[in-house]
Amino acid sequence: MKSEDFPRFEVKGQVALVTGAARGIGRACALALAHAGADVALGLRDAKTAGDLATEIEAMGRRALRLQMDMSRLDEIQSAVAAAVAHFGRLDILVNNAGVAPENPAENVREKDFDLTLAVNLKGTFFASQAAGRVMIRQKRGRIINLGSQAGFVALPTESIYCMTKAAISHLTRCLAVEWGPYNITVNAVAPTFIRTPGTEECLSNEAFRADVLSRIALGRIGEPMEVAAAVVYLASPAASLVTGTTLLIDGGWTAR
């Protein structure tokens, strides 16, 4: 067999945009994509942040671009995608990572928390996909990877709104995959379990909570951001060229029970 007949798990020469790139899973995705060969646009709620991340990417010999991209603001989503395309000349990969998860028992959920969760997790994901999708349709190629959650498959107490949005992400992924398949655009999602990030640090520091989480994960450990990023790189790579409309669970076996 020729070398080109084997799976390729790299994205050399491509341009990726990662939303919510400042920390946690978003940061890991940006670094992993750069390591796999991509130049990376960093979608940030505050573009003044993540200077060290841009430096790390550039140290790999890749280009990095910091973008103001508050995912609750449609104007910033559209301008960030346009700026990425203007700077790099194309957009091959979109990683919709940004998300929020205010915790509250369902009977205590406030309207402003409800609205913010839907605005960032669903509306933001849809309109970022739309803006990137328009570019990818012209290119006749693209990869969109959404960040779902195991919370889209199982119920997590006090997180009804978050769970609802992540379940919706899985179905939105299928809808966009079907609609944009004719343009050689794949749309997939990854659905992690609890991952060791700044956002989960407080809840996982509670011994009782942590013990309960670990009892539900077959592998018996908390995940690391780069383990999620690995799946994102796979879905962005030529190795996943026939994969679309799927949500890949990265849950250590939580939902297998």
Label this structure with key terms.
Rossmann fold; alpha/beta; 7-stranded parallel beta sheet; globular; 257 residues
Which CATH-level-2 architecture? 3-Layer(aba) Sandwich
Biggest β-sheet strands, sense, barrel: 7 strands, parallel
Number of strands: 7
Q: How helical, in percent, are the residues?
A: 40-55%
Our estimate of the beta-strand percent is 5-15%
Q: Would you identify the CATH H-level superfamily?
A: NAD(P)-binding Rossmann-like Domain
Total DSSP helices: 8
What name is given to the CATH topology? Rossmann fold
What distance separates the N and C termini?
41 Å
If you average the pLDDT, what whole number results? 96
List low-pLDDT spans. none
Rg result: 18 Å
Q: Any idea how many domains? A: 1
CATH class label: Alpha Beta
The helix/strand series, from N terminus to C terminus, equals EHEHEHEHEHEHHHE
What form results from the Cα inertia axes? globular
